[in-house]
Each structure stands twice: as C-alpha cells, then as structure tokens.
C-alpha cells in the first residue's frame, strides 16, 4: 500500500508540475506576443512613418533646393536671351554661373547649348558635347525626356573635376516658343549629401538611404553595408517589387536574425525612393528580457509551490497511512496491515529458519467493566492495556488490536520460551496497574496464549493454536499465560 501511495504522490506532483509550467509558459508567451505585436504595430504604423515624414520634410529643405535653383536657371530670361542671341560674350554666362554657384553654395553650375554643344561652366568653357562620347550620354538622355518631365537627378563624376562625384540636377531649357535650346543645372557633392544622411541617421537613430525606380541604391551613409540593389538585399529582395510599384509602403523583414522595420516613400522631385529602416527596437529587447525574467521567476514560484505541495501531501499521506494501518482508539496496527507484516515475517522465517512467535492476549471480565462503568471507561482500559504492551515490546515487534479487547503480538526472531517470558512481563505489568474511576479502583488482568511458528505450518493453524492456548488460560482461572507446544 505504501508503494502505491508513493507512486500516486509522484504522479500527482508530476502532473501538477506540468500543468503549472504549461500554464505559466502559455500565459507568459501570450503576454510577450501581445506586447511584441503592440510595439511592432506602434513602430510600423506610427513611429517609423512619422520619422520618415520628418526626414522627408528636411530633404525638401536640404536636397530639393538644387532642383529649385535649376528651375530658376532654366526659366531665367537672361539665359534664354543669351542663348537665342548666338551665345555672344561667353564671359557673361560664365560670370552668371559663377554667381549662382557662389550664392547657393553648390559645387558646380553649368549650361550646355543645343546649338553649339558647348559645355559652359563657372570656370569657363570646358568642352563640347559629342554624340559618341560615353561621358556625354547624360545630355542626350535629358534631351530625350518626355514633355511632362523637365529634369532628372543623377549621380556622375564632375565634368570639371573627374576625381569628385556630384549629385546633378539636369534641367531642360526652352526658348520663349517652347523649343529645346539646352540643359542647365547645378550639382551637390556626394560627400555633402552623405553628411546630410548621416545627420538624419544620428538625429533619428534610423538607417537612411535612397533607391531609384529600378531598385539601385543611389545614395547612402558612410556606414551603409547593404547590397547595391533591392533585388539582391537579403530578406528584402521579395519586397522589391512592392516597394518599386507603391508610392509608399511599411512592413518588416528579417536581416541577420533581427527584425527590421522599413518605411519607403517616393520623393517625386528626385524620382527616388526614400528608405528609412529601424532595427529591432530596444523596447523589443526589454520585452524579451522581461519574458525570460518572468519565466525564471515563474519556475522559482513553481518550485516553491511544488515543495509546499510535496510537504503538504507528505503530511496528509502520513496521516492517511496511519489511518489506513492503525486502530483509531489504541494506535495499534489494525488487522489489514497486520496481515502484511504477518505474511512477511513467516516468509522470512521459512527462508532463514529463524523463529517467530505470537501472543494472543485478552482482557479478563471486560464486559463487566463496560456494564458497570460505561463504554468510555472501557475504552480507557483498552488504551491503557495497549500502552503497557507497547512499553514491553521491541522496535521490530508488532502489536495488533485483534478484536474488541483482544491483542495479537507478532514477535520475529523470538522462540517460544522468550515469548512466554515477554507475555508474563506484560501480564504482571497490567495486573499491577490500577485505574481510578469515581473513587473506585479498577483492577485489570489479562489472559494470554503463546505459540511458536512451525516451519511449513499454515498461518491459520498458528492462529488457531494460539487461540486455543488463550482459552485454556481463561478456563484455568484467567490472569495467566498458557503455551502451545
């Protein structure tokens, strides 16, 4: 029975552990997901688009100025009159370009005449545009722009200084009748634009770069380490078409095992897409850290609960075991549990050929005690006898309440002679004890039968022999011990 109870206890503890752990991980996981999704939604739908709007506003101040300058130059009456008048006195135009460059702090300003194909620069006439020169392809590209498009923005080497890269704004110039007469414009140093991008990145703690309509990364900061096209960017390649076909887009993707939130929007004046990215937020890391802290704390709480549950179950288990194995009145072993001890002792005796003896003890005239003094005094007498018996036994001996006022004693490793001596000591101790009740003293005596187990003897025969010896003791006048040989 003890092993079965212990097995049930372990099973209960395991089931409780699994339920608690599953419930806690489940609730913690849901809490983490809700917090994570809420933060992701906040970033992708609010924070990042707002940052993109702010950067876009600053771009209009910092980068769209060259477009405005080029537009003024293309509409300038002086430029058009000077060109129509066969480009007389080139120094006038050169001085004009130089003033534009100085006034607006550009790195270059230029005009190319369709009629003469001369490339006028703030420092003089640099060259003539040729149809077959690869470096002059930009001019014919701008000249061929649709009527609805007046300019283009491109990045190229500075015509005046081939060691420097410039962001050019190339603007078509028409005469007063709408005929194409040349291209004018200004340029910004790429380094200057990169500084602006770096400033945006530092100010907003985001990665900023530009992409043209074909997916090529046109401008980026110094620390940019991505691919040169969207189509080759890890994690981003599957969104390239979506970006390049939408005026704006917001989504997230995974790069280097990190969640990256991206907002794109078309800067129509540049015909480029502004790309603003934010890596996995610090808030997400805090949420994840909180999740793991909660898990650890939860495990600690579960351990504490299991320890308390184990101690509580152990205490109740011991109570149940006592209730299931002992007599409620005397605390002696009950008959059900005694049968297990009895069988075990007889098996050991058969294996090791060691003696086992039993004593069957009955309180004399117990019915008269109940009749004269009541059942509560009768119970007191039974408890007193049980206590006296226990004091005479060894730790390995078992006392069982066999019947109403009968006790059966199991004595392993004791032969008949020593068992008789023990029975006699018990008889004398009980006879010496007096119980005072309402100024009356109740004397108690017991009769006992003693028998030793014979190897191979059925258990029922042993009980029968000791029972016969007990009745012989009663027949001979009670208060005595009779042995069964």
UniProtKB/TrEMBL annotation:
GO cellular component: plasma membrane
Location(s), subcellular: Cell membrane
InterPro entries from the UniProt entry: dCache_1, Diguanylate_Cyclase, GGDEF_dom, Nucleotide_cyclase, Rev_trsase/Diguanyl_cyclase
Alphabetized UniProt keyword annotations: Cell membrane, Membrane, Transmembrane, Transmembrane helix
Pfam families noted in UniProt: dCache_1, GGDEF
Cofactor(s) essential for the protein: Mg(2+)
EC number per UniProt: 2.7.7.65
Keyword Cell membrane: yes
Molecular function terms from GO: diguanylate cyclase activity
Transmembrane segments: 12-32, 291-313
Topology class, membrane: Multi-pass membrane protein
Occurrences of domain GGDEF (ranges): 354-485
Name of the protein this chain belongs to: diguanylate cyclase
């Amino acid at each position: 029975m003890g092993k079965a109870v212990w097995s049930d206890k372990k099973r209960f503890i395991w089931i409780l552990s699994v339920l608690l752990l599953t419930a806690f991980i489940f609730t913690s996981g849901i809490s983490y997901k809700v917090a994570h999704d809420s933060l992701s939604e906040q970033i992708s739908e609010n924070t990042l688009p707002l940052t993109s709007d702010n950067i876009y506003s600053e771009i209009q101040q910092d980068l769209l100025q060259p477009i405005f300058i080029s537009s003024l130059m293309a509409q300038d009456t002086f430029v058009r009159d000077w060109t129509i008048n066969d480009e007389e006195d080139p120094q006038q135009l050169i001085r004009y370009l130089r003033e534009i460059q100085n006034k607006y702090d550009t790195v270059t300003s230029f005009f190319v005449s369709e009629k003469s194909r001369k490339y006028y620069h703030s420092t003089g006439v640099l060259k003539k545009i040729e149809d077959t020169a690869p470096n002059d392809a930009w001019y014919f590209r701008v000249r061929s722009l649709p009527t609805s498009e007046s300019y283009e923005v491109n990045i190229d080497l500075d015509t005046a200084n081939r060691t420097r890269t410039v962001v050019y704004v190339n603007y078509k110039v028409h005469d007063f009748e709408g005929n194409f007469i040349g291209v004018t414009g200004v340029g910004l140093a790429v380094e200057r634009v990169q500084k602006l991008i770096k400033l945006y990145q530092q100010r907003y703690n985001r990665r900023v770069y530009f992409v043209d309509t074909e997916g090529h990364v046109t401008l980026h900061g110094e620390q940019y380490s991505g691919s040169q096209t969207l189509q080759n960017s890890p994690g981003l390649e599957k969104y390239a078409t979506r970006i390049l076909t939408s005026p704006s887009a917001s989504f997230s993707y995974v790069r280097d095992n990190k969640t990256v939130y991206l907002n794109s929007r078309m800067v129509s004046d540049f015909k480029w897409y502004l790309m603003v990215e934010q890596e996995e937020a610090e808030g997400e890391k805090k949420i994840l850290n909180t999740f793991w802290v909660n898990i650890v704390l939860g495990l600690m709480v579960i351990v504490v609960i299991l320890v308390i549950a184990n101690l509580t179950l152990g205490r109740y288990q011991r109570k149940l075991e006592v209730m299931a194995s002992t007599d409620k009145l005397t605390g002696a072993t009950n008959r059900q549990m005694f049968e297990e001890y009895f069988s075990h002792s007889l098996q050991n005796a058969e294996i090791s050929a060691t003696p086992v003896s039993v004593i069957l003890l009955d309180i004399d005239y117990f019915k008269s005690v109940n009749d004269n003094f009541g059942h509560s005094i009768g119970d007191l007498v039974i408890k007193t006898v049980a206590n006296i018996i226990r004091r005479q036994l060894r730790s390995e001996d078992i006392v069982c309440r066999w019947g109403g006022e009968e006790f059966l004693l199991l004595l392993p490793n004791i032969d008949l002679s020593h068992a008789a001596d023990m029975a006699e000591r018990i008889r004398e101790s009980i006879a010496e004890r007096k119980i005072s009740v309402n100024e009356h003293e109740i004397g108690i005596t017991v009769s006992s039968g003693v028998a030793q187990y014979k190897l191979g003897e059925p258990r029922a025969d042993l009980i029968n022999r000791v029972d016969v010896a007990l009745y012989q003791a009663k027949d001979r006048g009670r208060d005595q011990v009779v042995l069964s040989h």
